[in-house]
Design goal:
Elements lengths: L12 H10 L7 H22 L3 H6 L13 H16 L2 E6 L6 E2 L7 E9 L10 E9 L22 E7 L3 E6 L4 E7 L4 E6 L10 E3 L10 H12 L3 E2 L5 H11 L2 E4 L12 H14 L3 E3 L19 E4 L1 H12 L3
The protein binds 2,5-anhydro-1,6-di-O-phosphono-D-mannitol and magnesium ion.
Length: about 325
Amino acid sequence: HHDKLALPVGTTLDRFIMRKQEDFPYATGELSQLLRDIALAAKIVNREINRSGLIDIAGAYGNRNVQGEDQQKLDVIANIRFIRALRNGGEVCTIISEEDEDVIQTGNTQGKYVVAIDPLDGSSNIDVNVSIGTIFSIYRRVSPTGSEGNSQDFLQPGTHQVAAGYVIYGSSTMMVYTTGNGVNGFTYEPSLGEFFLSHPNILTPKTGAVYSVNEGSSESFSQGVTEFVAYCKDNSFSARYIGSLVADFHRNLLKGGIYIYPPTAKAPNGKLRLMYECNPLAFIVEQAGGKASNGRQRTMEIEPRDMHERCPLFIGSPELVDKAEELLAKEH
Ligand code: AHM
Ligand code: MG
């Protein structure tokens, strides 16, 4: 029932989150607060990213950042910012991050939620001014409230996600998220410091003519993946690969297409992480009418065994993901 939830373009993210909450009479507002905490951290990280080109220049006249910390790499800074926001917000008991091997205890043992996050994905692109992103996934904890969370809280299939989203720091900064009621996109207005609803109820095209895969590894693609890439070429698809997952995903979500990170010789299980790269994007794409698969199985139904495990990813327009799965099923 997206109609009931429809709000006009230009609604601020804060208002949007509040109004959505009113549609769920028993909601306590904790998830809403958590989403606002993530948006706040995103604004701070956005500011750091925009300034990043100036860091060396600022460093040359001895500038230090406000906390007096030595200047660190942006992915480390983003990790600190998001963890701090989630800790201060109080709704999250435990976090896993691509930047940390172990689970992170926020100290909020009463918090009902756990968050898996890639604070700044595509960090190799930072130095060359290419779009980068934050990806997050929110689960209800399974460990008892009042205790510390643990890795079991994260070993839940993607179907259990209560919300997921990403922030793209691009030509404009956007936050796109779902709570399981469709997907909405908000564009950041830096002079006002607000995200505004710009892409209500995003639906991805049923098919598309873009394929996004790192073909530099094509020598080690499986037969099915090789055949799928050939299928794309036979049909004169456009090849588009930024090498920044959020940016490649965002483009294909809006325009139609498929993003693939297959098993390769270098990365036999693919490169991307199930908990904070594949599952959140899978939740979003499905809510937008698309599909996500590891080539054989729906991404969100994979039973995770390790918090940081990797899995192959085929994600995007439903007809293209179906086609890829069909060709992979014929492999022997
Ligand atoms: P990272 O988490 O180390 O930044 O790596 C993830 C990135 C994705 O953003 C991108 O889609 C992928 O790695 C590109 O990998 P490759 O260079 O192997 O194609
Ligand atoms: Mg990453």
